[in-house]
Amino acid sequence: MDNGKACGHVQNVQFATVQKRFKTSGFKKCCGLCGQQYLAVSQSASLWLCLTCGYELCEQDIKRHAVQDFGISGSGVHALAMDTATFTVRCFRCIIPIEPQKDTTLNEIVEFCKHQAGVESVATFLPEADEQESMEDKTWSYMRGILNPGHRYPLNAFLQCLARSSFFMIMVKQSLVPAVIEIPGGEVKLTEEVKILLPSIKVKTPRIVDETLENIIDIINELTCGESSIVSPVKLDEFHGTDMHPYAYIVKKLAAVLQYPRDTIREEIKAVLPDHLINQEENFEAIISKYQQTIKNYEWIEMSKFGYSIQLIEEENREEKTTIYSYLKANLATLRTPRLPNDGVGEYTTYRNCFLVPPLILTPKFSKHCVDDFKTLSFPFILNLTPFCCPSINTSLGKKPILYELFGIIKEKDINRYAAYVKVRTPPLKQDTVKIEKMIKNLQLHYSKIIYSQEQEEYIVPEPESIEEPEPVDVQPSPGKWYYAQDTYVREVTEEEVLRVRPYSLFYERLINLPDC
């Protein structure tokens, strides 16, 4: 059987795109979504190269990638992929092997990849079989420098910190899986006399990632893939000319991925409504509004897991020595959460909801004059946010302390020059990953309960004046080593040096080593 001709998806391969991606970054050693290493010569343990967009993914993720429809701008269906260890090609839509020799463009891509890998390609980047067991433990064992391709904003330092989060890439992977939700209908009032009962509709989102976010994911995976060489990232032009904190910017990018397509929603609604309602513009807009508010709530619940970038301004009447707690207390009344595109989360972005449910990642950023004026700022390795959180949430979590661990700091060296202090820990074990996924789901359930609760008064954060600074907790940080990194320069540092830093931004994440937290 001529599989090359039998599979119509061969026409979607893009030689120029694959060639451009290879010239930029070469062969990857980590999955572009899950970040795991796949280096063994076997179809179950190697990476697959999408022959339409050039993205490299593990077999599980390439299957999800292949069933998406990226539209005309994304060259349609990305069905064909090549095993980067064996150079065999497979269509993950038709579920058949493809003979590259049967198609000129396909054969050119495979030969180009072989040439890029070299004659000894398989041997050069594949470890011995007996090294596989220790590979996962070594994944985070190296602290790599980053070549600065003209980044003036603290992007390199930020990426160094984010790469060491136990949560971020797990959350990203969950978020990029195409989703289908069923939106309940319910009663809507059109006029004083007319009420109608709306049916439920199903809405899906393809979760298409733009190039900037894709490049950021690539860089983070490269930083933790077990190599000791310097990372040479692509230039991320979108970060130039913006004063937005990098984490807030990436959350905004993820929000665009998570957003449900409004045009599709309108078409789905039209398909289930009678013509007389569709033709009455005023009534139709009222119906659209009913569905879209529910969708905004879904989007907000999905975004809640990524936490917040909190801007902290200077305290009034601050003392010679101040703490991170006093800054949080002074700024609680004005805290803002990131907005989704098109005001996606409405009222939930305009009130002090940052601590209604404890976020997984917390990135307090100090305004520039705060950093310049610091005499001594005290920030702990273990942050206790219990006094700042809504009491009802604390009760629902079993009255356990809500603790965060410091894993990264960004320091401003001088004008537009930044450095990172990063804690390199062992990667999450498989059972810890399961616990993280469970925590993410529980967090979203708590947000869902708040948003849909009829008793909103139950969920109120404490008044700033009533908050008292918590006592230190007897919890030890997770084992690991601290490093200083400024672009390509990296050195190990002591905890004492870390605590003396004047921070531009701090990176905290929820502790996961407490039972069932």
Automatic annotation (TrEMBL):
Name of the protein this chain belongs to: Ubiquitin carboxyl-terminal hydrolase 16-like protein
Organism listed in the record: Anopheles sinensis
Q: Which Gene3D superfamilies match?
A: Cysteine proteinases (3.90.70.10), Zinc/RING finger domain, C3HC4 (zinc finger) (3.30.40.10)
Looking at the record, the residues that make up the USP domain are 144-511
Report the residue ranges that make up the UBP-type domain in this protein. 5-116
- Keyword Coiled coil among UniProt keywords: no
Q: What lineage is this protein's organism placed in?
A: Eukaryota, Metazoa, Ecdysozoa, Arthropoda, Hexapoda
Q: Does the keyword Mitochondrion apply?
A: no
Q: Which UniProt keywords apply?
A: Hydrolase, Metal-binding, Zinc, Zinc-finger
| One Gene Ontology molecular-function label | hydrolase activity
InterPro entries, alphabetized: Papain-like_cys_pep_sf (IPR038765), USP (IPR028889), Znf_RING/FYVE/PHD (IPR013083), Znf_UBP (IPR001607)
